[in-house]
Amino acid sequence: MEPTPAKPVKSQHKSGQSTAGQTFNPIESLSPYQNNWRIKARVSFKGDIRKWSNARGEGKLFNVNFLDESDEIRATAFNDVAEQFYNTLEEGKVYTVERARIQQAKPQFSHLTHPYELALDKDTVITECFDTSDVPKLHFNFTKLDKIQAAEVNAVVDVIGVLKTANPVFQITAKSTGKAFDRRNITIVDDSNFAIDIGLWNQTALEFNTSEGSVIAFKGCKVQDFGGRSLTLTHSGSMVVNPDTPEAYQLKGWYDNQGMNENFKSLKVEAGPNQNYIKNRKTILAAQEDNLGMHEKPDFFSVKATISYFKTDNFSYPACSNTVPGNSQAPGQQENTCNRKVLEQSDGWRCEKCNITLPEPLHRYILNCSITDETGQLWTTLFDQEARKLFGMSAGDLINLKEKQDMNESNEFADLMESITMKEFNFRLRARQDSYNGNVRIRYQTMSLFDVDFVAECDELCQELDSML
Predict the structure, then answer these.
(1) What is the pLDDT of residues 100-111, one digit of tens each?
(2) Where does a domain end: 266, 299, 329?
């Protein structure tokens, strides 16, 4: 006898028997131009209920991702509706969903690629399904580890690899709140012969007990660049141990037969200029002659160079300081603030992205400087993190120094610039092609910089001399 479909229940959980005979829309087809639609999807991620506040008020919300064989879409519920559906939905179970509002996606809050998202409200109807065979558990778009170096910082990627090492859990304390977070760093490898570290947070870090040699698939890892490339599993990300996918079986066979004995290339960059770092350094002329930056993807290289000139007329931009919901789950996962450029208006500083007006902006560095070595010169841009390291202060503090100098109240700004100009540093640069007014040029960004270690430099020179004798 054919099971009877469950009767939908508005804004509350109700068990059903089957969805046989019903027609569903694929998630990839959803758009605001549709009215009568229904999807059948699995909850691939369910977030916690979080509190939010901004200039317009405060409240609570939670997010959930729905997945079918065509795509994945994010849904959000606020306040009483959030409480209602938080108790309705369980991660991993399958539901039919209808009568939610379809609206433009907010990519700053999610790594999903669907152009739209769902807003769950009091009219939304959700029904649990037990006929789940046609709904996948997770959808991955894997990136090989050797491609991570060329990925944009803060890009979100899916990766799959074999667990090489798992380090013990340690704690990180957020400077802004004093709150402690648990973290565990693990290393995975793949058949591109690269290894990369992945940071796990809080409960995921504490409960991780996978044995080395297991295959793990990660969905939703953010690319970071602190001492080289690494990944961190985002709050809405997930991992599956030994997944039932062709990629997993292929990797397991490769590792057991060959990979466990390989020497893997690391995406790390040493924190200081050790001798290996010095050996791999380029001159500016060599980088230009090698056409670094002229390829389809960015090139990365290191130079030892002197800062010869700063552009001090425009070294920062006014940024939005609004706290983005869901971005404070753990340090390093996401930025705590919006950071988009704001425009000054009569009633304050306007952020179009957050749709709010702030009384004051947060100034962030975007510093252009000329660097030279014995072979040539180039212009590079330092963003907030590296410029803070260079000046030892925030962009707002440096603006204050410049304003005092402009009013003849202090010479501290000029003294600071003079103390850094003609000083030598080790730079890690990214070169990428850019087109402006029809002209192709190379733009260089400083990914990291640190002081020259003269002891290491002397040791390297001594080794070169010894090799000549």
Answers:
(1) 999 999 877 777
(2) 266
